[in-house]
Specification:
The complex is a heterodimer of chains A (434) and B (330).
Chain A lengths: L3 E4 L9 E7 L6 E2 L4 E6 L4 E5 L4 E4 L8 E3 L3 E6 L25 H9 L16 H10 L13 H10 L17 H17 L18 H16 L2 E9 L1 H18 L5 H15 L5 E4 L2 E4 L5 E3 L1 E3 L2 E3 L2 E2 L7 H16 L13 E5 L18 E15 L2 E15 L5 H16 L7
Parallel strand pairs in A: 12-16, 16-17
Antiparallel strand pairs in A: 1-8, 2-4, 2-7, 3-6, 4-5, 6-8, 9-18, 10-11, 12-15, 13-14, 17-18
Helix pairs in contact in A: 1-2, 3-4, 7-8, 7-9
Chain B lengths: L8 E3 H15 L3 E5 L15 H5 L4 E3 L4 H13 L3 E6 L9 H8 L2 H4 L9 E6 L14 H5 L5 E3 L4 H13 L4 E6 L6 E3 L13 E4 L4 E5 L2 H15 L4 E5 L2 E3 L3 H11 L2 E8 L4 H13 L8 E5 L8 H7 L3 H12 L1
Helix pairs in contact in B: 1-7, 3-4, 8-12, 9-10
The chains are: A alpha+beta (434), B alpha/beta (330).
Chain lengths: 434, 330
C-alpha cells in the first residue's frame, strides 16, 4: 500500500501558509481515517486537521510552530506492515487479487507508471486505456511543489530586501507577487518599525519577546490599513437605560429558562442595532472599489477579545432573529472563539460590527472600523449620570454609544440619525417587541 | 529624442525622393532601377523628376522581373556601383530571395573581404490599402534572419530621409521597408543635410510606467495609445528601433529596466516574427527588472483579407494596445 501524504491544508482562498500549532498524534502512533491529527493555525483561525486515511504516522517534517506553505507534505501515514522511515523508497506494490483482462495499451501504460493493474477497477469487462487514465488522474500530484508565482522584478526585490515571498500576498495574475506587493510589504514593515520605539543607546534589559504571529500580524495590518484609508469620525450619544434595566430584570429569568444562558446587554444591543440598521441601511454597507454595497441582511460582527488577540464572529441575518436565539448564538460564538474553535466561515462576511467594552467599566471609547465595513459601534458601561427630567436634575443609568463611521461613505447627519433611532429603541425597549 | 531644427514639413515620399536626389548628386555611382521608376516616377512617385535631373543612364526602367532586377543590382554593386532598386510591393521580394540571401548577403564573406555589395533595395510593407493578400504583407522578418543583410524600417519622413541616406552610403546590402499607407504622412524635415545611422533607436515619447516598442506604422498607433494612457494617468514610453538589424538592443533594454513592463507592437505576422525577437531581446536583457510578461501585438497569422472589415481586424490597433497596456499596468 502506498503511504498516504498529510499535506498542509488550504482553508481559504487567500491562504499561502499555515502554522502547525501541535500534533495530536505522535510519530509511530496508529491513526484512523478522520481522527483529529494536528492543529493548524491560519491568519484567522485555528482548526483541527483530520487524518486523510488510516495508518502509522511517520516522517513528520513540520514540527509545532513551523510555518509551512499550503500543499506541502508534512507527514505520511504508512500501512502498518510498511511502517518505516519516510526517507526509504516506498515498497513496491504487490499485486492484489487475480489480474483482470487488460487491453495491450492499458498494460503498457500501467507498466510505464508502475501501477498495479489489480488495483484498477475496469469500467467494463476489461481494463482499458480510459480506466488507467482515470486512475492516474486520481493520484495525488507528486511533482515537486510549484514555484511561487512572482514577477522577476518582485523576486529580485524580495531577494535584495531579504523578504520571503511565501509571506507576501500576490495581487498579480494567478496570484503572482508583483513589485507593488513587495513595495507594499516593505512600506508596511517600515511603518511598523517607526511605530516601535527606537532602541536607546543603552538597551533596556529584562524583556521577553512576543513575535508578531499570524493573528497579531493580521490585526496589525488590517487596523493600520483601515485607519490609514478610511477617514474616521466619531459620534457619541448618551442613552438613558432606566427602562432597559427594568426590562432586563424581567427578562433574565425567562431567558435563563428558555436558553440556559444568562441574558447579556450585548444580546439586546445586537437586536436593537440590527433593527436600527434595517432603518438606516447605508450604515449596513461595504465600500468596495468604486461601489458602496448596501446589504439587505444584517450580518452583525461581534468583537470578542481573546487572551492574545481579537476575533469578530458573525451573527447572520441578525435582524430576523429573536432575542433568545441571539443570546444562544452569542454565548456559543464567544465560547468557541475563546477556545479557538471557530470555523473560518463564521468569521467572514459581517456588514457592521459591535464592540462592547462595558464589562470592563470603560465609560466610552472609539474603535477602528473593520474594513470594508463603514461603521462600528463602540459600547461603554452603564454608569450613573445626571439627566434633566421635568426641570429637575436626576441621576440615571446612562450608556454611552460611540459610532465610528467611514466619512467617505457616511455623513455625520446619517450617523446621527442612526444613533437617534438606536437611542429611541433602547430608551423605549418595548418597541423591540413590535 | 531627435527633433528636427526647422519647421519645413515634407511628406514621407517627398523625404525619400529628396534623399535619393541628394545621394545621386553626392555620388555618381548611385543609380536607380526598378519597374516604372523612370518615366512614371515610381508607383508611389518616390522617384518622380529624377529621370529629368539625372538622365536615363542613372534612372532605369526594368522589365517586370524582380529576380532580374535584384541580379542586375548585385552585379552593379559588386562592380563598384551603388544601385538603389525599387520593388513595388514587399510581397514580390520573394522573387529576389536567391540574389539577396545567397549572393548579396554572402559576397563580402565569400570573397574574403575583396568584394562588397553596397546595394539598397527599397520596397513596401503594410496592410490597410485594400490590396488583398498578395500586396499587403510585411515580410522584413525574412531578411532580418540573414547574416549579411541590414534592414531599415522608418516611421517618419525625418527618419526615412536620414536612414535612406545612410543605407545608400553603407557598404552592405540594406533592405529598406516603407509603409505604403504612410507615403502621404507629413512631418518636419530640415533643409540642411543630415543622416541617421543604422542601429540607433529613437525614443519617440518618454514615459515611466510602460515601454511600447513599435515599428513603422505602429509607431503612430503607439503614440495615439500613449495619449490615451496619459489620460488615465499612465505614462508610456514609445521607442522606435528604426532599423531591425543592426538593432539598438541597449536602448530597448534600458527602457524596459526603467518601466518594468514592455509591449512590442508590429504590423507583420506574429508567429516567428520580429515581435518575438524583440520581446526575447528585452526579456533576456532586463529579466530581473520585469514586473510582467513581455507582450506581443502583431498582425493575425492569416493571409490579409480583401474585405475591408476583415482586413482591419487583422492589424493591431490603438484600442487593443491601450487594453493590453492597462492589463500590464493594472
Amino acid at each position: 500500500m502506498k503511504p498516504i501524504e498529510v499535506i498542509m491544508p488550504k482553508m481559504e482562498m487567500a491562504q499561502d501558509t499555515g502554522t502547525v500549532v501541535r500534533w495530536l498524534k505522535a510519530e509511530g502512533d496508529s491513526v484512523q481515517k478522520g481522527e483529529p491529527l494536528l492543529e493548524v493555525e491560519t491568519d484567522k483561525v485555528t482548526v483541527e486537521v483530520e487524518a486523510p486515511g488510516s495508518g502509522i504516522l511517520s516522517g513528520v517534517t513540520a514540527q509545532a510552530g513551523a510555518e509551512v506553505p499550503v500543499g506541502q507534505v508534512i507527514a505520511r501515514l504508512l500501512a502498518p506492515e510498511a511502517a518505516a522511515p519516510a526517507e526509504t523508497e516506498p515498497p513496491v506494490e504487490a499485486a492484489s487479487g487475480p489480474t483482470p483482462a487488460v487491453t495491450p495499451v492499458a498494460q503498457r501504460m500501467a507498466a510505464a507508471h508502475q501501477l498495479d493493474l489489480g488495483r484498477i477497477a475496469p469500467a467494463g469487462r476489461r481494463v482499458t486505456k480510459a480506466d488507467v487514465s482515470a486512475h492516474l488522474a486520481r493520484q495525488p500530484d507528486e511533482r515537486k511543489p510549484r514555484l511561487r508565482p512572482a514577477s522577476p522584478l518582485a523576486r529580485r526585490l524580495a531577494h535584495e530586501e531579504g523578504l520571503d515571498l511565501a509571506g507576501i500576498n500576490g495581487s498579480g495574475p494567478e496570484g503572482a507577487v508583483v513589485a507593488a506587493d513587495i513595495r507594499a510589504a516593505l512600506a508596511a514593515a517600515a511603518k511598523a518599525e517607526t511605530m516601535v520605539e527606537k532602541p536607546e543607546a543603552a538597551p533596556v534589559e529584562g524583556y521577553r519577546v512576543i513575535p508578531l504571529r499570524s493573528m497579531r500580524k493580521v490585526i496589525a495590518g488590517r487596523l493600520q490599513q483601515s485607519y490609514q484609508n478610511a477617514p474616521h469620525i466619531s459620534l457619541t450619544l448618551p442613552v438613558d437605560m432606566t427602562e432597559m434595566e427594568r426590562l432586563m430584570a424581567h427578562l433574565a429569568e425567562p431567558v435563563r429558562q428558555e436558553t440556559g444562558k444568562e441574558l447579556t446587554l450585548t444580546a439586546i444591543l445586537a437586536q436593537a442595532v440590527a433593527l436600527a440598521l434595517t432603518r438606516h441601511p447605508r450604515l449596513n454597507s461595504h465600500l468596495v472599489g468604486e461601489e458602496i454595497r448596501e446589504f439587505e441582511q444584517v450580518h452583525l460582527g461581534i468583537a470578542v477579545a481573546l487572551e492574545d488577540g481579537l476575533v469578530v464572529p458573525v451573527i447572520r441575518s441578525a435582524q430576523s432573529k429573536r432575542l433568545a436565539a441571539l443570546q444562544i448564538e452569542l454565548s456559543d460564538l464567544a465560547g468557541r472563539a475563546r477556545a479557538n474553535k471557530l470555523a473560518l466561515p463564521e468569521l467572514k462576511g459581517s456588514t457592521f460590527t459591535l464592540s462592547n467594552l462595558g464589562m470592563y467599566g470603560i465609560e466610552q471609547f472609539t474603535a477602528i472600523i473593520n474594513p470594508p465595513e463603514v461603521g462600528i459601534l463602540a459600547v461603554g458601561a452603564i454608569m450613573p449620570g445626571p439627566k434633566e427630567v421635568g426641570g429637575q436634575l436626576v441621576m440615571r443609568p446612562l450608556l454611552r454609544l460611540t459610532l465610528m463611521v467611514d466619512h467617505r461613505v457616511i455623513d455625520g447627519a446619517v450617523g446621527a440619525q442612526f444613533l437617534a433611532t438606536l437611542k429611541g429603541l433602547l430608551e423605549n425597549p418595548y418597541r423591540l417587541i413590535l | 529624442m531627435s527633433t528636427p531644427n526647422n519647421q519645413r514639413e515634407l511628406t514621407f515620399v517627398e523625404a525619400i525622393r529628396e534623399a535619393l536626389a541628394e545621394e545621386m548628386r553626392h555620388d555618381e555611382a548611385v543609380v536607380l532601377l526598378g519597374e516604372d521608376v523612370a518615366a512614371a516616377g515610381g508607383i508611389f512617385k518616390a522617384s518622380a523628376g529624377l529621370l529629368e535631373e539625372f538622365g536615363p543612364q542613372r534612372v532605369l526602367d526594368t522589365p517586370i522581373s524582380e529576380a532580374g532586377i535584384a541580379g542586375v543590382a548585385v552585379g552593379l554593386a559588386l562592380t563598384q556601383m551603388r544601385p538603389v532598386v525599387e520593388i513595388m510591393f514587399g510581397d514580390f521580394t520573394t522573387q529576389t530571395m536567391d540574389q539577396m540571401v545567397n549572393q548579396a548577403a554572402k559576397a563580402h564573406y565569400m570573397s574574403g573581404g575583396k568584394l562588397a555589395a553596397p546595394l539598397v533595395m527599397r520596397t513596401t510593407m503594410g496592410a490597410g490599402r485594400r490590396s488583398a493578400a498578395q500586396h499587403s504583407q510585411s515580410l522584413y522578418a525574412w531578411f532580418c534572419h540573414i547574416p549579411g543583410l541590414k534592414v531599415a524600417i522608418p516611421s517618419t519622413p525625418y527618419d526615412a530621409k536620414g536612414l535612406l541616406k545612410s543605407a545608400i552610403r553603407d557598404n552592405n546590402p540594406v533592405i529598406f521597408f516603407e509603409d505604403k499607407m504612410m507615403y502621404q504622412l507629413k512631418g518636419p524635415v530640415p533643409t540642411e543635410e543630415y543622416t541617421i545611422p543604422l542601429g540607433q533607436a529613437d525614443i519617440k515619447r518618454e514615459g515611466e510606467d510602460i515601454t511600447i516598442i513599435a515599428t513603422s506604422s505602429m509607431v503612430h498607433v503607439a503614440l495615439k495609445a500613449a495619449d490615451q494612457l496619459a489620460g488615465q494617468g499612465i505614462s508610456a514610453e514609445v521607442i522606435d528601433p528604426r532599423s531591425l538589424f543592426p538593432l539598438d538592443a541597449e536602448t530597448l533594454i534600458a527602457s524596459a529596466k526603467k518601466t518594468s513592463r514592455v509591449i512590442v507592437i508590429d504590423e507583420a505576422y506574429r508567429r516567428y516574427g520580429i515581435t518575438g525577437e524583440l520581446a526575447a531581446t528585452v526579456a533576456e536583457g532586463a529579466f530581473y527588472y520585469l514586473d510582467a510578461p513581455v507582450r506581443r501585438l502583431a498582425a493575425l497569422d492569416t493571409p490579409v483579407p480583401f474585405s475591408p472589415a476583415l482586413e482591419d481586424l487583422t492589424i493591431p490597433n490603438e484600442a487593443l494596445l491601450v487594453k493590453t497596456a492597462l492589463e500590464l499596468v493594472r
